[in-house]
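=== RUN LOG ===
request id: a7f3
mode: sequence -> structure
chains: 1
length: 203
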Amino acid sequence: MKNRTPLVASVMLSAVLLTGCSAAAATHPAGGQGTHDGGHHQSAGVPARAAAEGPSDAAKMVCGDQPMDRLVAILKLDTPPHTVNDWADSTFTCTYHLDQASPAVPGSLDISVQEARDEATALEYFDAMQALAPDATPIDGLANLGFPAYETADGKAVFQKDSFVLTVDASGLPTAVGPDAVTRNALAYQLATTILACWVEHG
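=== RESULT ===
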């Protein structure tokens, strides 16, 4: 019975994978005029990378088709939100300006990936972040899909997988958003698991 939890977590993640996943991101440099652009289907793995190489294709998935489509579906947006991305200090960040897509969703949402040189270093980053985060609560059991994970009361979900630390930060949004009043914690978690599924599919 001791293998039951990993098995069920695997089944849950496989269910997420059935929705499909785009393998690369629409990349819009910070300060540019980029808007979401679908149809990117390059292959992407999840390797350890040197910071000088720039973000990996897997990291750029956070600004890609699948999280965008999921975000539009959850919040029932009429149009995809404008996105801007940035690469600094080995961290790729995609900012979704939701207020430009719907006046009913004020604020913006950030999804970032910190790339470490290896899995052990990524876990060190994750542990340090969790220790410093106020009101951090571990995401336990099946909900973490077998990865180290925690959430915060202000709407952040953080997962560590391989050499990556994924953070979905919905703290810039109201406590409940969209016509269905989705909590920002639920939104952050759903987007994080969508991206994890992309990484598993293309890993």
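=== NOTES ===
Strands lie at 82-88, 91-97, 109-115, 137-138, 149-151, 156-161, 164-169, 176-177, 182-183.
The first helix runs from residue 4 to 17.
=== END ===
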